[in-house]
Protein 1
Amino acid sequence: MPKSAIKYSQYRAKREFRPQSRTRGYDRQWELLARSFRVEFPLCRMCLDAGVTRAAALVDHIVPVVIDPSLRLEWSNLQSLCRLCHAKKTAEDATKYA
Ligand SMILES: [Zn+2]
């Protein structure tokens, strides 16, 4: 079996283990909004604040959806982040909203 096939099966296993994006609250409306937001803000905001130019990998909710679901589709509650900053922010949120 080629090496990539093994990786793909692991990827599939992970995907199947994780609940579908729709059941996690990320519907079509969110997908469209997040896509538009990343077109408008393609760089990581936290990196920019630190003087670093890095492409964003995803759109983050500044106030997490679990804290205030009403801000889920609120443009002003969004920020583009790279994966590193998103991991950092998620860890900070866990403390902040504990
Ligand atoms: Zn970043």
Protein 2
Amino acid sequence: MEQADGTRSDGSTEARPRGTAALHVAPSGGAATNPRRYVVVLEVTPDVARADEITKALALAKRLLDEAFAGSSYAQLVTRDVWATDRAHRGQAAASALMAVEVELECLGWPGESTARLQTLLKQNGYRVIAEERRACAEEGCRSEAVLLPNRPNRRGRVDDGWYSETICGKHNYKTCPGCRSVFRLLSTNASGPAASVACTECGFVLVEWGSSKHWEIELVTASAVSS
Ligand SMILES: [Zn+2]
Ligand SMILES: [Zn+2]
């Protein structure tokens, strides 16, 4: 329970918001790199815009990024100050004030696990988290991108409508067997008559019902981890 003054009933002040953390993840560079490069930008704005609070927020942001991305390869952190500038009034110079600090890193491959860990760490440290992810399909040659707001999950949770998974868009005919969770790629050719049904090679679940207007072939991508 949190009291009005921000202290919790157990006496800790850990849950009191100390500021806002805006997390932005987007593909970087061309689609030719495999795995794809992503840029992660974390902007932390302390509730109290004082130089010492901003210095503390920067140290925390770096520490949490290090912790969240431990074990994954990423390029060196780049930090930038974020200034708020009031419009110049007549006869007065514009006033600038340091209000936030931004830390950026670049990593190889979709950093979904690390950014999820980072969001948890930020919340544990009393930050409100605003996140936006722009992702690129990991399939070679595919240019599909999607924007996801992880704080506002859609009806499929973290996966976008129309996407097969967090890293693969819906254009590639992937199918997960509901029976054993094996993943197949479905390839179709036109059938002259009603096509035969197609069953999972691992568990026998019918993946495509009899009578489809296309003839389907299935290619096993990943067998279920569950052994029969
Ligand atoms: Zn795709
Ligand atoms: Zn199956």
